[in-house]
Amino acid sequence: MTRSIFVSTTMGRPVRLLGAVAAAVGLAAAIAFGMQWWGEWPLRSAERELAGGNARRAVALAEYYLERHTDDGVALALKARGLVDLGEARTAAEIYEQIGAASAADIHAWAKAYLLQESWSRGVQLLKQYVRMRPDDADGLYELATSQARLGLFTDALDAARRYAAQPGEESQGVLLAAILHHDMKDREAAEAAFARVLELVPDATGLQLPPAEVFLQYGTILLDRGDAAAALPWLEKSRGARPGGEVLYCLGRARSQLGDQEGALAAWREAVTLDPRGVSSREALAEGALAAGNTAEAAEWLGPLEGVATERPETAFLLQRLAAARKDTAAFDRWKPMADELRRRQQRVRALEQLIAGAPSSPWAVALRSHRFAAGGNWREAEDLLEGVPSSFDDEPFVAELREAVRTHGALPSLDGVPVEIK
Predict the structure, then answer these.
(1) Can you tell me the distance from the alpha carbon of 386 to that of 276, in angstroms, rounded to the nearest whole number?
(2) Separation between Cα atoms, residue 38 and residue 141, nearest integer Å
(3) Distance between CA atoms of residues 119 and 99, nearest Å
(4) Distance separating alpha carbons of residues 260 and 266, to the nearest angstrom
(5) Is residue 413 within 8 Å of residue 376, measured between CB atoms?
(6) Distance between CA 309 and CA 300 in Å, rounded?
(7) CA dihedral (89, 91, 97, 99) positive or negative
(8) Quick one: residue 260, left, alpha or beta (phi over 0 = left, psi -120 to 50 = alpha)?
């Protein structure tokens, strides 16, 4: 008995010692964890502030934490997400370019930082990654569709729009987006069907991305262009009732003219000019009517304010040519005829280039043309990003070589006449 007591006593000491050490280690770990947990309270608070929509407070908390933890990736990402919500896209993008994105939320925020800078190509690549991770995110799908459309990638945009329309509660918005895309693609039949579906879902067209007046106008114009003025007229009247304006009144005049109501057409066009004295289309329509009636003085009155426009618009230049011919004004005719001919030639070329882009949007020439378009609008970064997708083998083409140099130096852009395209 004594021996057993001796054995248990002597072996109990190391056991108790190990237990004390373990407890001490555990206590130290708990203290360290607690200190870390306490030290990271600004990050947890920043997350809550972001979730609650208070981006400014979230950024302040992240910056407070970064004063002691300069390179902390979590804090930098929280700051970047907050900056995106505040519209400080360039700084946010620079942070993400430095640290990358560790979560779907950061990928989405990084994409939005590019979109806010109209850097569509970069934004699209990130949005593709994001919607693979969050395939049911309506916002991501909408942003992807609209960004792809800006790049002229309409087929891809339509696919994203259909996926967007399939999300709960988003059918009307998604179908409207598809309608707009079909319209931009010049697919009038599909656009008409899509607009009809939108108005079936939302008869008063409220709560959509476009104002009701614009939805009614778009649908009415599509019907009018198809030659169905009778079907177009009530939608155009609804648009006018919601928001009178020069464009809808011009279309109303067209519809009434097609239906044989010439007096009603002239009244609509005159009202359009009253609302918008600089309105081009209605003035042209009134001038054409006056010329058809042999009233050259009235035609000249309508066309007078448009002489500046005529140097860029073939329709106006041609009407001034007709006016000069009716007046037997040789000098004016010799001025306007060559200008009208040249403007028509340019218009035909632009249409041919647009068909090239629409028909093969991923082809090197289409990409180069989109780059030229963005550069012409001052978006040099997007122009440069797009040019990276044009193979170097195309540098033998003078237009591409000149375009690369222009984009690099922000210099004068090459003429579109250098693009080999067949004009029909």
Answers:
(1) 38
(2) 38
(3) 19
(4) 11
(5) yes
(6) 14
(7) negative
(8) left
Give this prediction's pTM. 0.84
Per the CB < 8 A criterion, the answer to whether 219 and 196 are in contact is yes
Please answer whether residues 266 and 230 qualify as being in contact, where contact means their C-beta atoms are separated by less than 8 angstroms.
no
- For position 11, what pLDDT does the model report? 46
Q: Helices (DSSP H) in 40-119: which residue ranges?
A: 41-51, 55-66, 73-85, 89-99, 104-116
One-letter amino acid of 402: E
253 is written with which tokens?
């005049």
What is the chain's length? 424
CA distance 152 to 267: 39
Sign of CA dihedral 144, 112, 77, 52: negative
Q: 246: which residues sit within 8 A by CB, 6+ positions away?
A: 272, 273, 275, 276, 279, 281, 282
Cα separation, 57 vs 106, in Å, equals: 18
pLDDT, residue 19, reads 52
Q: What is the dihedral of CA 233, 234, 240, 242, to 10 degrees?
A: -160
Name residues of the chain where pLDDT drops below 50. 1-11, 20-39
How far apart are the two ends of the chain, measured CA to CA in Å? Answer: 114
* Residue at 179: amino acid letter: A
- Distance, in Å, from the CA atom of 129 to the CA atom of 273, rounded to the nearest integer, reads 49
Which among 205, 124, 139 is positioned nearest to 170, based on CA atoms? 139
Q: Are 405 and 413 in contact (CB under 8 A)?
A: no
Q: Tell which residue, 182, 140, 175, 147, has the closest CA to residue 161.
A: 175
Q: What is the rounded CA–CA span in Å between residue 23 and residue 3? A: 30
Structure tokens at 305: 């304010």
Residues 6+ apart with CB under 8 A from 46: 57, 58, 59, 61, 62, 65, 75, 78, 82
The reported pLDDT for the residue numbered 359 is 85
The rounded distance, in Å, linking the Cα atoms of 357 and 150 is: 12
Look at residue 358 in the predicted model and tell me its pLDDT. Answer: 86
CB 389 within 8 A of CB 366: no
